[in-house]
Amino acid sequence: MKSSELFETAKTLMPGGVSSPVRAIKPYPFYTSHAGGSHLSTVDGRELIDCCMAYGPLILGHAHPHIRNAIAAQLENGWLYGTPTPLEPKFAQIITGDHPGMDMVRFVSSGSEATMAAIRLARGYTGKKDIVKIEGGFHGAHDAVLVKAGSGATTMGIPDSAGVLADFVAHTRQVAYNDAEALETLLTAQTDVAALIIEPVLGNIGPVLPENTYLQDIRKITRAHDVLMIFDEVITGYRIGIGGAQKLYGVQPDLTTLGKIIGGGLPIGAFGGRREIMELVAPQGPVYQAGTFSGNPLSLTAGIATLQWLHDHKTIYRDLDEKTRALEELLKRADSGSFVRFGSMFKWFFRKEPPKNYREVKECDIGRFGKFWKQMLDDGIFLPPSQFETNFLSTAHSDQDLITLSQAYIQCLSK
Ligand SMILES: *Cc1c(COP(=O)(O)O)cnc(C)c1O
């Protein structure tokens, strides 16, 4: 069946025809039949260079043989036990070893679950009510973090979704990214703040990079106000290097959330942090958190295989960085916007200067992006279908892929 026909059926049975909103491409999304390396194959017989990479998890590309073999070996032994497995302490050792800010870790099944639990834990530890998030920061699809920016709603939360109680999100405050002073002002006025949750590099409207000493500054400010700092490294963890943004910038958060890459392409999430905070998590402490699929053997197996591979191939990050650097070099000639990159994360913004925060990201020419995106797809390149989603490269993207990609960029940007 063709994509158009599949979508006809899907949309009568599933809201919007999809399992997650960002996949709803007009007039209908293409359906993938299989994938390998840097390529996606559609049921319509097209082969595309994939620069979405499932929105971040697949740093080693699709169907990497090392990961596939590890999963296949685990399958022989079963895939869910409801008991502890030797995989858990092994995985925990790797993750805590890589992140100086994580003494202990709890495994969950998605990034959303991780941030939800980290926020509950911060409230449980501090006994305070409010949280602060960054405008344009994305932390999954649960109530506390589904708060829209804009409308001057920097101090009072406004729900971003029907069904989210205004009463509840009133406890979610917001500040602009790259504005340490705004955070200082907010925390001086509001004394009931349990935690700041922040993507150290904004990945869900970006990448938008931290300026100067921003991350160091907000670390000082949160500490001075007795506010926990949660780094949501669900995207940046193992994406920009082993140890994530906290290692790269030398800033130690109190709690960290991980997901995406650490599952090697299978569902996962994790949160961890300072021992005295993590010891409050059930059953050791009173902050409840639980899950049937938590620490599931297949995800952990794929995760361990991925992290070991990254540890064993240390030039991966330098090589990926070099690839986006070369792309940037080529795109300097285009003048319809700005190119932003951070290791293997990159984006063309239809805005003259690289945006520094959510407000500036919103100034991008969305109409122009829509046309560009469609042209790129016609040229065989699949980019995330939004001006606000980061593009990703994997180790599977070859030099030839990069040549094809940069030619398509140059051509489509000049149209
Ligand atoms: C993807 C993402 C999440 C949510 O993770 P899911 O696994 O989709 O629930 C949370 N935070 C950040 C920064 C993300 O990029």
What is the distance, rounded to the nearest whole angstrom, between the alpha carbons of the first and last residues?
A: 33 Å
Mean pLDDT metric: 95
Low-confidence runs = 149-155
Q: What is the radius of gyration? A: 21 Å
Strand order of the largest sheet: 4-10-9-8-7-5-6
User: Could you describe the largest sheet, including whether it forms a barrel?
Assistant: 7 strands, mixed
CATH fold description of the largest domain: Aspartate Aminotransferase, domain 2
By CATH's scheme, which homologous superfamily of the largest domain applies?
Type I PLP-dependent aspartate aminotransferase-like (Major domain)
Structural class: alpha/beta
CATH class of the largest domain: Alpha Beta
Topology:
Elements: H1 3-13, E1 32-36, E2 39-42, E3 47-50, H2 65-75, H3 87-98, E4 104-108, H4 111-126, E5 130-134, H5 166-169, E6 172-175, H6 180-189, E7 193-198, H7 214-224, E8 228-232, H8 244-249, E9 255-259, E10 269-273, H9 275-278, H10 297-312, H11 316-331, E11 338-342, E12 345-349, H12 358-361, H13 366-378, E13 381-382, E14 391-392, H14 399-413
Parallel strand pairs: 3-13, 5-6, 5-7, 7-8, 8-9
Antiparallel strand pairs: 1-2, 2-3, 4-10, 9-10, 11-12, 12-14
Helix pairs in contact: 2-10, 3-10, 6-7, 11-14
Bound molecules: pyridoxal-5'-phosphate.
Residues 110-112, 115, 138-140, 199, 203-204, 232, 234-235, 259-260, 269 line the site of pyridoxal-5'-phosphate (PLP).
